[in-house]
Amino acid sequence: MPKDTRLQSHKADMARYCAYQERSILEVKNKLQQHELNAEEENEIINFLLEEKFVDESRLASAYTRGKFYSNKWGRVKIRLGLREKGLDNDTIAEGLKEIDNEEYRQMLVKLIDKKIVSLKSTELLPLKQKLAQYAIGKGYEYDLIKLLIDRRLEG
């Protein structure tokens, strides 16, 4: 297959890959590793994807943040880690995290805590607090906020 035809075919494949869901440049590079391309060809494909807006990391950060917060009920810590794994820089991650309203964030954590309290069997205060905190930390919320809201829920 001629080089131009092969390159066009790879561009089309990668465009479909990126159109399916938002991707980062790192994810695209990792996917391109599966093809037998040289660095120049890889760069040409990545530039094409960026120019044609198939890859937009700020759009990815916003979509990922909204999806993980509203669907999975993840906290900022876990979302930040997920975005970092995708190879996004700190500024892009910070912009994406602005998608979460502070009041909605607190309300989401309160709902998670309230739902978890019902499911836990413990009646002793300290083990209950520990289990709630462990659960909320696992969901990616900040410890200081967790502690404040658990204390309010259980003692207030």
Could you characterize the architecture of this molecule?
- Helices cover 74% and strands 0% of the residues.
- It is mostly helical and 156 residues long.
What features would you highlight for this structure?
single chain; mainly alpha; 74% helix
Order of helices and strands: HHHHHHHHH
User: Could you describe the largest sheet, including whether it forms a barrel?
Assistant: none
Coarse structural class: mainly alpha
Total beta-strand segments? 0
The shape is elongated
Q: Average the pLDDT over all residues and give the rounded result.
A: 94
The total count of helices amounts to: 9
Fraction in beta strands: under 5%
Low-confidence stretches: none
Termini separation comes to: 72 Å
Roughly what percent helix? over 70%
| Rg (CA only) | 21 Å
